[in-house]
Amino acid sequence: MLTLSNDNLLAAVRKLVTDERRLTRNILDHINEVDQRRLHVELGYSSIFEWLVKDLGYSESAAYRRMQAARLIRAVPGAAVKVESGELGLSVLAKVQTMIRAEEKRTCSVISQTTKTEILAKVESCSAREAEVHLASQFPDSAPSNVQEKVHAIGQDLVRVELTFTSAQFEKLKRIEELLSHTHLGSSKAALIETAMDVFLEKKDPLRRDVAKPRQPQPLREPAHSEPAPGEPRFGAPPSTQSNTAAALKIGASSADVSVAEGLRKNFNPIGTARQVRPSQKVSVFKNSGGRCEYIDSKTKRRCESRHLLEIDHIQPRARGGTNELQNLRILCRSHNLFAAQKIFGESTMARFRSTLSPYS
Ligand SMILES: [Zn+2]
Fold first, then answer.
1. 230-241 pLDDT, tens digit each
2. Overall domain count for the chain
3. Is the pTM for the entire model greater than 0.85?
């Protein structure tokens, strides 16, 4: 490189940047294809974000930008060309996608492809800051607070968290301070919040509850180790996930698609609403799982271990005679519950169901 003339060095950098933009567009296209095929779920990751960070090694911020940018170019295919030309960068795309989702969530409506295309046209060749300003003026009610939440580790056992409360939220904190004034007079805000958190967790966290007759700990079950019953589909995913969904399909089989989706929704049994599973059983199976998704990729043996959107699943489907005995229950995250259901009902049915839950499940 030392032998390059200045002109040749500059030309080489320009060519590398052009190559980088082409590669970036290519990576986004590939991320979208992985997402469409749900390959990350099969590998044991509960989300594209988690796969990008833990499997591909991106930093969290880099993964987030690519995930959001990929979703936006999927929604507005014309944007991909502008990634390649450099008119739209990852940061700008991520900010636009984040704001669009915030606005859609706030208004409970979907922003059209035409509007998204118009938004992108306005932020072309903008810096991330310029795009932020434009987006805030277009969607003032969905714009994030000027003061962002910040979390910093400042020691082995200390984390500094900067929050911005609304007046109503701060009034609640002050009320907690009043209620705890006999025992926590002069306590820090962190101590007050901790006390409130303990009250919540004691009530809501199954890992904190006592169980009358917990089942004996046992090795995690392999997703594909169970031999399917005669006539039962053979899938790479755990056969257990057929239970609730099978019952759900039965409910909606003769109705419109929306009925199927409703049936599926009602029968996926979030941790707090599992039908016919007693609270003590729910707590036991939750504790047995360690409060983490029990899905294991049959090829890599990687366990998901997600702690979000956990649901109770029947190993032997209820629709096929499965019981609510503890040995027949386990915990899956929503992504893996849906993934297994997709194997049973097909992609088209589950795509409709996913759309009723979240476009980012
Ligand atoms: Zn999972």
1. 333 333 333 333
2. 3
3. no
